[in-house]
Design a protein that fits this description.
- The chain is α+β, with helices and mostly antiparallel strands and 331 residues long.
- The protein has 2 domains: 170 residues, Jelly Rolls, CATH 2.60.120; 110 residues, Orthogonal Bundle (Arc Repressor Mutant, subunit A), CATH 1.10.10.60.
- Helix content is 39%, strand content 25%.
- It is built from 9 helices and 12 strands.
- The strands form 2 sheets. Strands 1-2-3-4-11-6-9-12 form an 8-stranded antiparallel β-sheet, covered by helices on one side. Strands 5-10-7-8 form a 4-stranded antiparallel β-sheet, with no helix packed on it.
- A hairpin with a 2-residue loop joins β2 and β3.
- α3 packs across α5, α4 packs across α5 and α7 packs across α8.
- It is elongated.
């Protein structure tokens, strides 16, 4: 869609950016589209908002070239509508990154170019995307809160790494939305530099993201550890222990069964009970191959009786334990 630059904003933006002067604005109009781009480029921080209004035409979308000139950490906030990014990297073979409405992501990008595809909200036909870039040595002033994906991105920024990295889209919490709106609507203050005025919301945003990603990192570690524990527990079952469960796992790891179930489904797209069942069947295969009887395997791995075990085994593998033994013997 070709665009023509105009001198005034062709529509009323939803995000005021009162600190942006007239010489840091760019407005465009095209067939069925009006676009506003405003930015604040200061010593400590770069803030930019891209907004667009579309006419009610089916399949409205716009492609805009984008560039990164420095080794920057970008905090990207999809406020309205959605967007797809071709990452800023020397190689254009990576998949497009999709950012839904009310989601955000953190991107570390070395110098490069790419394309952003913007799609408006289906009801309001409005689009709004905000980008915040901590500049200079700003990130070095923020104390590390521990080993998390956010800290790894910050280290990439400090070390000037050449590898493009990003953290996938995350739903924006009400707290994140509050602080990004505070940042975008901070008015100039008498006797205070604008960088200082923006510093408070910036610190809070970085802290929100650091805490959020640290929590997600710990949650992934918990699920990974629980899965290893389940597999080890099943491998040592001798008939004297109950089968593993979310309740038993929660006792061992001082959490709740609900948390384990929810996190397992979130990170593995699978019910926790299905993973337990998989581990028990895989262990049953190993023991049947080793020559243990069907009855012994059923008893030791916690099934009530042989028919119950056989039914479960066939449902998982497509064959009965007896057929499995015969098939194994012929290999």
């Amino acid at each position: 869609m070709p665009l023509t630059r105009v001198s005034r904003c062709p529509f009323a933006p939803n995000h005021s950016l009162p600190f942006v002067p007239d010489d840091a604005t760019a407005y465009y109009v095209g067939e069925g589209c009006q676009l506003s781009y405003r930015w604040h480029d200061a010593f400590d921080v770069f803030v930019a908002v891209l907004e667009a209004c579309f006419a009610p035409v089916d399949g409205s979308r716009l492609e805009i070239p984008i560039e990164s000139h420095l080794y920057d950490l970008h905090l990207v906030y999809q406020l309205t509508g959605s967007s797809n990014f071709m990452p800023l990297a020397s190689s254009q073979t990576r998949p497009v990154l999709s950012l839904p409405a009310r989601h955000h992501m953190q991107v570390y990008a070395p110098p490069g170019s790419g394309v952003i595809h913007i799609l408006p909200d289906g009801q309001t036909l409005h689009f709004a995307l905000a980008v915040v870039v901590p500049k200079g040595d700003w990130v070095t002033r923020y104390p590390a809160v521990g080993n998390s994906p956010m800290e790894e991105l910050i280290r990439s920024r400090k070390e000037m790494a050449h590898e493009y990295r990003y953290l996938g889209p995350t739903p924006s919490t009400e707290s994140v939305l509050f602080w990004i709106n505070r940042l975008l609507n901070t008015p100039p203050r008498s006797g205070m530099s604008l960088d200082d005025a923006l510093n408070g919301p910036m610190v809070r945003l970085i802290k929100e993201h650091s805490d959020e990603l640290a929590d997600r990192h710990r949650a992934r570690q918990l699920v990974a550890t629980v899965r290893l524990w389940v597999a080890d527990y099943v491998s040592s079952m001798d008939g004297s222990q109950p089968p593993p469960s979310a309740e038993l796992s929660a006792q061992v790891f001082a959490t709740t069964p609900r948390r384990i179930r929810e996190l397992h489904r979130k990170f593995h797209a699978q019910k926790f009970a299905q993973f337990i069942s998989y581990c028990r069947v895989e262990e049953a295969k190993q023991r049947l191959r080793a020559g243990e009887s069907i009855a012994a395997v059923a008893l030791k791995l916690g099934w009530a009786d042989v028919p119950t075990f056989s039914k479960h085994f066939k449902k998982s593998t497509g064959q009965t334990p007896g057929h499995f033994i015969k098939e194994t013997a012929h290999k």
